[in-house]
Input
Amino acid sequence: MEHFIVEQMLLEDLELAVVWAASEGWNPGLHDAEIFYQNDPEGFFIGKLDCKPVAVISAVRYSGDYGFIGFYIVAPEFRDHGYGGHLIQRAAQHLAGCRSIGLDGVESQQANYARHGARYAHDNIRFEGHGPGEFIPLLSGAEIRPLADISFEAVLNYDNRHFPADRSVFLRAWIDQPEALALGILQSGKLTGFGVRRACRKGYKIAPLFANDPKSASALLLSLRQGIDQETPFYLDAPQTNSDAMTLTKELGMNPVFHTARMYLGETPELPIQEIYGITSFELG
Output
């Protein structure tokens, strides 16, 4: 008789989930698994049918009362059998008590999430670009510096303005990951934006990209593109409701290739969406 169980993932299980995410076309980063896992090791679950992995999900709890659901994948041959529902229930149990839970739903799953009470907030659109581009002169008094040269407290404080919870453990690992380029923009010595470029299965992702204004965002994006050849793509996952981000991607000749719907269970966080030019990830928010 078939026997289905849901277990907490080990790190090697998350490596499998990343492979599945790649097969879905999500283009995960080369070092995502270990960085994601350390943020909340108890928040990753795998469903097994007669010991065979058939479904995965993450339910990462951040400090405070914010959580994020991601990595919801059922192996194609086991879909529409109810296995995914068991994982969603386990994820909800882990995040019980959270005032707000975010997720990015692909089009095929948005109705499913809505049935569980998730409300639509906005679309996130993945844009693809190529090459280093031309550098735009900085405003007077502005400079771009490696984030390693800027105090982590300043970076964390800026991140806390643009993300619903403190994520200091994650952010340190994200900035310091191998093959990454992390830059901040300073205006008169004050941090007014930062971004991180990481290596992915295909090309690079620039994530996140936060900035006070369009010119700062443009300067950061072009700096983060430096060293990328014309044959190598880079990607930016931008909130559609940030009109300046939509204008910037159009001006740079970037093309939309994928989209998700940001949805929330519970309260919808109040964030300065016009300063969010690129979210960090579809998996952890």
